[in-house]
Amino acid sequence: MGDLRKGSFASLLLVFQEVALKAVGLVSTLVLARILLPEDFGIIALAMLFLGLVELLAQTGSAQYLMRVDKLDDDKVNTAWTINFILKSIIAVPMIATGFIAAHYYDDPRLINIILTFTFLFVVSNADNPGLAYLRRAQEYGKIVKLTIIIKVVTVIVVIITALTLQNYWALVVGKVVGTFSMLVGSYFIYSYRPKFQLTNAKEQWKFSGWVIPQSMFGYVRTQLDSFLVSSSFGLAGLGSYNTIKYISYMPNAYLLLPMTQPFLVELTKAKVDKNHFNKQYNASFIIIMLIAAPITSIMYLHHELVTLFILGPNWLEYSYLMSFFSLLIPAAVVLRQASRMLLVYGKTKQIFFYECIAFVFVYTPLLIIGIDDLRLFSAVRVIAEIIITFLFLVVVAIKYTGIKNTVSLVFSLVPMALGIYIAVLVTNLVGKLNINVFVDLSVITFVFTCVFTIVVLISHVLVLRNFADWKYLEGIIFRITAPIVDKLQQKNN
C-alpha cells in the first residue's frame, strides 16, 4: 500500500473517528442548547477566549514536526515532550493572572474559578503520553480512534447529567475535567511508553518550531479577535450565540475535513523528491477534500434556518444568518490548510507566520472601519475578507512550489464542483420543503442535494475530467482502494 492510498485508508479511519465524535457532539449540543442558556455558553466561550491566547504560547508545532521528520526515534519524541512540558509549566502562571484580568474587565467574578480550573487541566495535560506519535507516524490510528470515541461518549454523558442537575455553565467545565483526565489515563493504556526529560534534539526542533509559536498566536488572534469584539458590544448572550454558531459551522472542518488531510502530510513529505508525482498527490488531496466540503457548505448556507433550528432549537433562530456566513469558512479553511501543508512539507514555517500577519491586517482593517454596530454586516465582511486572503495565499504558494501550470489545474478543479452546486440548487428548489418536521425536511434536502451534486461531478468526470492528469490520477487511486472490496464481493457471489 503506497503513498496516497495508504494515506487515504488512514484518512478514512480518522474520518470515522470524527464522524462518530461529531454524532456524539451533535447529540450533546442538541440537548445542552435546550437545557442551558446562551449566557452559559457565553461565559465558557469568554473564559476560553482569554485562555486560548495564553495557551498558544505552548503550541510549538511538535506534532507537525514529528510527522514530517525523515526518521522518528525516542530522542525526538522525548525532546518534543520535554519542550512542551517546560513551556506549559511556565505559561500556567500568566494563565492564572488571566482569570483575574478577565473577571475585572467584564466585572464577572465567575470567570476566576473557571479559568483556575482550566489552568489546572492545562498543567495536567502535560503528562499525556507522547509515544502516541509512533502510532500516528505509522498511520496506525485504530487504538487512538477507539480511545477518543470512548472518552467523548463518557464526557457527553457526564455533561448532560450534570447539566440536568445543575442547570448552569458548570456542566461544561465538568465535561472538560472528565475529558482531560480520561485522555491522560487512556493514552498510556493504549500504548506502552515511558517519556523522560530530554533535550537532545532541541536545537533542530526549535528551528522548526521557532516560527510556529508566533504564527499560532497571530492565527489565534486573527480567528478569535472578532469574538472578543462581539463580547465587548453584545454581552454574554451575544457572544454565546455568535461563538456557538461559529463553532457549529466549523464542525465539518474540525471533525471531518481536517482529519482527512492529516495523513497526507506524511505522504506528501515522502513524495516531494519527485515533483510530478508530488503535484498529482497535492492536487488530488485538494480535490478529495473540496468534493466533500462543497455540498456541506452549500446546504448550511442555503438552509441555515433549518440547520439552526435542528441543532440549537427555536431560541437561536434569530441568529441563523450567522450560520450562512460562517459556513463559507469551511472551504476557506480547506484552502488555508492546503497552502499551509505545502509550506510544512518544505519546512517553511516562517512563511506561514508572515501570512498570518498579512491576513490579520487584511481581515481586521475593514472590520475596524465599519465598526460592530451591525452584527450581520460585521460577520459578512469578516467572512468575505477571510475567503479572499486564503484563496490568494493558496495561489501564491502553489505557483511557487508547483508551478503556474499546476496551479491553473488546481483552480480549474473547482469548476465542476461549482457546476454541481448550481444544478443541485436548482433541483433542490424544485423539490422544495415537505413541511413535515425539521429533521425530515433537512434530511430530504441533504439527500437530494448530495445525490445531484455527486451525479453531476461523475458525469463531468466521465465526459471531460478524466482526460486531465489530476482527475485521472484520482480515478486510479479510487480504483486501487476499492479493488479489494470489489474482489471480495465477487468471491462471495461466486
In short:
This protein has 494 residues and is mainly alpha-helical.
Features:
494 residues, mainly alpha, 20 helices, globular
N-to-C series of helices and strands: HHHHHHHHHHHHHHHHHHHH
Task: Name the shape in a single word.
Answer: globular
Structural class: mainly alpha
Oligomer: single chain
Explain the overall architecture.
- This protein is mainly α.
- It has a domain at 1-210.
- It has 20 helices and no strands.
- The protein has helices at 3-35, 38-55, 62-68, 74-106, 110-124, 132-137, 142-166, 170-190, 202-209, 212-271, 275-302, 304-311, 320-327, 329-345, 349-370, 375-402, 404-412, 414-431, 438-463, 469-493.
- α18 packs across α19.
- The two termini are 27 Å apart.
Which secondary structure elements does this structure contain, and how are they paired or packed?
Layout: H1 3-35, H2 38-55, H3 62-68, H4 74-106, H5 110-124, H6 132-137, H7 142-166, H8 170-190, H9 202-209, H10 212-271, H11 275-302, H12 304-311, H13 320-327, H14 329-345, H15 349-370, H16 375-402, H17 404-412, H18 414-431, H19 438-463, H20 469-493
Helix pairs in contact: 1-7, 1-10, 1-20, 2-4, 2-5, 2-10, 4-5, 5-8, 7-8, 10-11, 10-13, 10-14, 10-15, 11-13, 11-14, 11-18, 11-20, 12-13, 12-19, 13-16, 14-16, 15-16, 16-17, 18-19
